[in-house]
Amino acid sequence: SRALQDPRERLIVVRHEQLLKVPLGDDACRVKAKICFGRIFDEAVRMAASASGSKVGVALPISLAQLGGGFMSGIESKGSSQRTEEEACMRSTLFRLLRRAANGHAEGAQRDSDASGRRVPFPESGILQCGPVRVFRDTVANGYVMLQQEVELTVFCYWLPNLNAPSLDGRVSGVEEFIGPAIGPIDPSAYILRTRQKLETLLHTVSPLGLTHLLVSDDGVAEAGGQAKHFGQAFLAALATTVRKPMPSVSVLGSAAFVHTVHKRMVQ
After folding, report:
1. Judging by DSSP bridges, how do beta strands 146-158 and 56-61 pair with one another?
2. Under the phi-then-psi rule, with left for phi > 0, alpha for psi from -120 to 50, and beta for the rest, what region is 117?
3. Among 24, 47, 181, 247, which has the minimal tally of Cβ within 10 Å of its Cβ?
């Protein structure tokens, strides 16, 4: 049964400060990023199913205030990050893993909190590695029908602070219901640094896992009050300075601004 826990499943909190213990040495390198089109979860499933031996990782923003977005409530949230998160939960075993992480059952879990003091399953500069995530349903366009053959992904979850301006009347916005309280905008250089840390954590984590593909998009950035070009700059900085061999093929997709920022600097 898909409801039963897979004994192979692992939930691991990886922290940015752990990277200080990992020497780069002479194998530090620049990695080219390929431009890809489509929705990130769809593309990840397609890649995993397209060739025998493919091991695909996908970076996915999650909603800390309501894990799974509107998956359990049946209310589809607004914004690409939640639609992606909700779709991933609908099509796979991801939601069960997120719920376990929220209950403190991930390796390396501590008493982490966000800027407002709210408990979170992993820190802003870190990621949550989930895998294998078994995908057993087709796309929403195909009615979520059962796949003839399941595919497996490794999902790397991260979260984005809500940088939208707080409501003047104190009302909780629809965005806040999913991604948490609005804290207002921050300086672009600070945003790039904070974002770069989580992407560095992602890339260091991916390096030794033997994945063949890694997909990264800017899903959720605009909804959380960020700018796609700044997210792209942070991604490029992480690629240029912290990636170690061997690395999977890295594909980027998402908004035109994010893809263009990456395309200008490094593209195969």
Report:
1. parallel
2. left
3. 24
**Are 253 and 43 within 8 A, CB to CB?**
yes
Strands 10-14 and 127-137: antiparallel
- Strand 146-158 to strand 33-35: parallel, antiparallel, or no bridges (unpaired)? unpaired
Contacts of 217 (CB under 8 A, 6+ apart): 40, 59, 252, 253, 254, 258
Report the length, in residues, of the chain: 268
The span from the CA of 223 to the CA of 162, in Å, is 8
* Cα separation values, 23 from 18, 96, 206, 214, 216, Å: 11, 35, 15, 22, 24
